[in-house]
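Q: I have two molecules that I believe assemble together. Could you output structure tokens for the complex as a whole instead of separate predictions?
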Amino acid sequence: MITLHINGQMRQFPAVMNLAEFLESLELSGKRIAVEKNGEIVPKSQYLVTPVNDGDQLEIVVAVGGG
Amino acid sequence: MDTLVIAGRSYASRLLVGTGKYQNFAQTRAAIDASGAEIVTVAIRRTNIGQDPNQPSLLDALPPSRFTYLPNTAGCYTADDAIRTLRLARELLDGHDLVKLEVLGDPQSLYPNVVETIKAAEVLVKEGFKVMVYTSDDPIIAKQLEDIGCVAVMPLASLIGSGMGILNPWNLQIILSRLNVPVIVDAGVGTASDAAIAMELGCAAVLMNTAIAGAANPILMASAMKKAVEAGREAYLAGRMPKKAYQASPSSPTSGIIGS
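A: Yes, here they are, computed for all two components at once.
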């Protein structure tokens, strides 16, 4: 298991090979999202080659209604 | 044709609308269709990890192929948070770089923090964003934001979501007389006449959310706002008659009156 700081919460997840696999496990693959890892934007094209390690800080966002 | 031009792109509608506070996406879409708006603001928020990821999304209700998205930084109180939010938005929307910057001062007034706004605008413009910026109606700050390179300056008419209308038309006129980029009233419009007044002053457009979403019948109000913005624009272009405070002027002929 790895512990991630995700969207402001500490949570445990099974270890994964990369960000693409992690997003797949959350059923977020192919969704309109954007990901920031440790303060840096991760482009969609980099999901497969971006590792997700114990202690990483992730922000995953979507567009919602707003003014 | 009289079009609104922002960052080199033309829009037929001078009404920009928010997508918040509606009951559901169907109502959102119906109101936005009734408004005729082409530019819609959206917020960027954390996903709910663990919640059903197959819930309908705003992007399904309002396809980005049909509407110009204007991601905002609502809820950000520092330049850093606003910059991070818009970098995420650009990634989320496949490189889309037209954004609405707003950095707030406190949660009671939602008044803009212009110091943080200027800091964020400087960074974002350098990074290639086309920044439409929410600000106070301070003409000096408005001009600074234009000089930084913002593509539109959007002063408040009154507090966000207050519906208090245009509290200081004089400041808006000073801003309008000094800036070359589009000046768009953003925040404070309560009803159709407020939108018409903003356009009659010479504003390039009006941006609103609560005035439509908070109406008892949002779809009818969206239609009213569309007409008000068009009427106000036409009145501005037509050039109003001069005001004569102390001298009336009859509309009917003064000769040939019976008994004269």
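A: One point stands out. Chain B has a mean pLDDT of 95.
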